[in-house]
Amino acid sequence: MKWYSLVVTLFIWLALTVGVGAQGGQFESEAAVTFGQRIVFTLTAVTDEPLTTVTLTIQPTHFPPQTETVTPRQLGDGRWQAQYVLEPQAAGLPPFVTITYEWQVNTSSGETITIPAQTVAYQDDRFAWKKIEQAAAGTAVTIFWPGESDKPGRDAFVIAQQTAAQLQELLPLPAATPLPIFLYPSTADLRAALRLNGHDWAQGHTDPALGVVLVTAVNSKTAADDLRGPLPHEITHFWLYQAAGPHYADMPYWFKEGLAVWLASGDTYEATADSQSLTNLCRADPPADWEMAAAQSGTLVQFVDEQYGREALALLAAAFAQGADCETAVSSIMGQSVAELEASWLANTQPRPTAVRFVQQHGMWLLLLLAGFVLMGLLVMRPGGKN
Ligand SMILES: [Zn+2]
User: Fold this and answer.
1) Taking the domains of the chain in order of start, what are their residue ranges?
2) What is the third-level CATH fold of 127-244?
3) Residue 378's Cα: distance from chain center in Å?
4) What angle do CA 171, 134, 175 make, to 5 degrees?
5) How far apart, in Å, are the Cα atoms of 369 and each of 39, 120, 363?
6) How far is the CA of 83 from the centre of ligand 1 (A)?
7) Using an 8 Å Cβ cutoff, are 42 and 72 in contact?
């Protein structure tokens, strides 16, 4: 072994052990997660100088930092331990949040040692997750799924990539925005993950403020089918929340739900006569008959896309993400009132009389048939004319 490779090896070894160490001793820091219950932060120190006080600063993403003072315990042989137990639910922390934490140690000689900051993800430890991390359409996608097969993760990645590309075109997110996706083996497991943390579904939706996409993929055989609708739908809600932040709550229902429904389905919708009024769908809260309202909203988004183009949808998305209300956004972008939009939407989506539909569907054949009759008529009439 050459001298420099020995130096490099020594350096790497030092970097690993000193990574959580510093002058004045050796320090080891770890955080252990029990999902739905606690996160235990433990600092172990080997030092000649007694430790007097230890503080732990915890900063969950999007939360203010909090500093806790911990009394160190002497374990003997110059070994000390400080431990802090965080109960996420009591602390009001959502599941799946990432926490940055940093220990500071004071020794009897008055020295202050700061252990480099580390992060821990408060994730569901009830499953052994497999993981794919890959960039897709400007986002940093991470997919977690349990089980032996790689297929659910790969299937999910393909769908996530397509959806992210469509959404990026409508409402761009900052480069490398993290897009974490968990594939639960059952809906019961998914809901248990939420309930363990004092959350739950509402109208089949997880709270997009959790900052993760949660969907169900039962096994490797069904994954692609299980995910085809729900994954683009949930990614859309996640995306709108990332773009709109606090304005997400005020977004018109027809837009945030309709976009998710429309992107999740290649189907075209047939609106029925008892359409929700658009004024109703302009409210942020889901209407009482939310399943019907969701389908109607999908139709409306599709109608806007077909009649006014992708740019109109993108402008609406940007306006709603900045907190514009329904009437203002529709009139400034589409040059009409909500009532006018509703009228043209209903005129275009209401079922037409059977005869009209028949002509629309079979127009070309009818035209050919008619042309045939005319030709025949001409042929029949011509000899008569000569007589
Ligand atoms: Zn939805």
Assistant:
1) 21-121, 127-244, 251-366
2) Neutral Protease; domain 2 (1.10.390)
3) 66
4) 35
5) 76, 72, 10
6) 42
7) no
Domain 21-121, classified CATH 3.40.190.10, yes or no: no
Percentage helix, strand, coil for the chain under 3-state DSSP, each rounded to 5:
45, 25, 30
Q: What angle do CA 113, 116, 122 make, to 5 degrees?
A: 125
Cα of 125 vs centre of ligand 1, distance in Å, is: 27
Q: Which two tokens stand for residue 241?
A: 């929340």
- Work out the average pLDDT over 103-115: 94
Residue 305 confidence class, pLDDT cut points 50, 70, 90: very high
pLDDT tens digits, 201-222 = 887 788 999 999 999 998 899 9
| pTM, to two decimals | 0.79
Separation of alpha carbons 383 and 325, rounded Å: 71
Helix (H, G, I), strand (E, B) or coil at 204: coil
∠ CA 253-322-303, rounded to 5°: 45
Interstrand relation of 213-216 and 177-184 (parallel, antiparallel or unpaired): parallel
Separation between Cα atoms, residue 52 and residue 71, nearest integer Å = 8
Q: Which two tokens stand for residue 64?
A: 């203010």
> If you measure from the C-alpha of residue 294 to the centroid of ligand 1, how many angstroms do you get, rounded to a whole number?
7
% of residues, the chain, pLDDT over 90: 67
How much distance in Å is there from the Cα of 146 to the middle of ligand 1? Answer: 25
The separation between the first and the last C-alpha atoms of the chain, rounded to the nearest angstrom, is: 115
Cα→Cα distances 44→25, 76, 141, 189, 339, Å: 10, 12, 35, 35, 67
